[in-house]
Amino acid sequence: MINSTQNHLLNQMQALESLASGQAAQVEVKPEQGPNFADLMQQAIGQVNETQMQAASLTKSFELGENVDLSEVMIAVQKSRVSFEALTQVRNKLLSAYQDVMNMSV
């Protein structure tokens, strides 16, 4: 089964072939239907939340004296911090880009 990307490439190749042979055939080129940006951001936020919840759970388990390794807890906490910092940087870049676009003169 041909996926949408392969179908799109096939349509482009057919258009180029018709141009190369001197024929002006119209080939329908459909825009790709990729993932929505908002959905990707929501998924990233969910993943960051999941790492934070896992780190909190491991921390609580360690504090209660359960059989949890300290190194495992520290690694989970650092992963949580790094993922949150990365998400914050992405948000800052998006906000900066939005402000640049809004300040453009028409």
Descriptive notes:
The protein is mainly alpha-helical. The protein folds into 2 domains: 34 residues, no CATH class; 72 residues. The protein is 73% helix and 0% strand. Helix 2 runs antiparallel to helix 3. The relative contact order is 0.08.
Largest β-sheet summary = none
Name the helicity range. Answer: over 70%
Provide the structure class.
mainly alpha
Query: How many helices in DSSP terms?
Result: 3
Mean pLDDT: 84
- Rg, alpha carbons: 24 Å
Per DSSP E runs of 2 or more residues, the count of β-strands stands at 0
Silhouette? elongated
- State the order of secondary-structure elements, H for helix, E for strand: HHH
Strand content: under 5%
Distance between the termini: 46 Å
Task: Provide the descriptors you would attach to this structure in a database record.
single chain, mainly alpha, 3 helices
